């Protein structure tokens, strides 16, 4: 059960999404696109509408796998672009700043950027694991108890590897372990 926790950044992306409005951004970029946006009570990722199940369609049918692969790949591409953008930005900006105060501000800004990128790299790894799970036919099932994670939860959190019950339980245990 501890396995997912090891893989997971200390802030799950669920938490990050919830905290997003207050998240420190030092510049305006397309980073916002990396976060799911809520539309009509469901989550629309990268303009990909939530999956509509046909009558009698079984869970994790081929079209569903295609659907989630599209979301995961779009998400990953977006994050990777954002990481590249930061590297370029930091190379450009660090070129010439003679003022000491400007330098200090810039270093602080870079530190924040680097922490954000670090979280994004971890998220990219999780996304890659989810794409691998699709390849392996494991996607959409709880790593812990094996039941279906469910389309709704996956739309909201495409990298979920646990059902909501196991996830909740793991979070309670996590809290107990860390006070
Ligand atoms: Zn479970």
Q: Could you name the key traits of this structure?
A:
elongated; 6 helices; Four Helix Bundle (Hemerythrin (Met), subunit A); mainly alpha; disordered N terminus; 2 strands; binds zinc ion
Task: Please tell me about this protein's structure.
This protein is mainly alpha-helical. It has a single domain (2-177), classed as DksA, coiled-coil domain (Four Helix Bundle (Hemerythrin (Met), subunit A), Up-down Bundle). Helices cover 57% and strands 3% of the residues. A two-stranded antiparallel sheet has the order 1-2. Helix 3 runs antiparallel to helix 4 (100-136). The chain starts with a helix and ends with a helix.
Instruction: Please give the CATH class.
Output: Mainly Alpha
- Heteromolecules bound: zinc ion
* Number of structurally distinct domains: 1
* Rg, nearest Å: 19 Å
Query: Structural class, from helix and strand content?
Result: mainly alpha
Q: Give the percentage of residues in beta strands.
A: under 5%
Give me the CATH fold name: Four Helix Bundle (Hemerythrin (Met), subunit A)
CATH superfamily: DksA, coiled-coil domain
How many β-strands, per DSSP?
A: 2
Provide a brief overview of the structure.
The chain has 179 residues and is mostly helical. It is built from 6 helices and 2 strands.
Annotate the secondary structure layout.
Elements: H1 2-7, H2 13-19, E1 37-39, E2 42-44, H3 62-93, H4 100-136, H5 151-156, H6 164-177
Antiparallel strand pairs: 1-2
Helix pairs in contact: 3-4
The structure holds zinc ion (ZN).
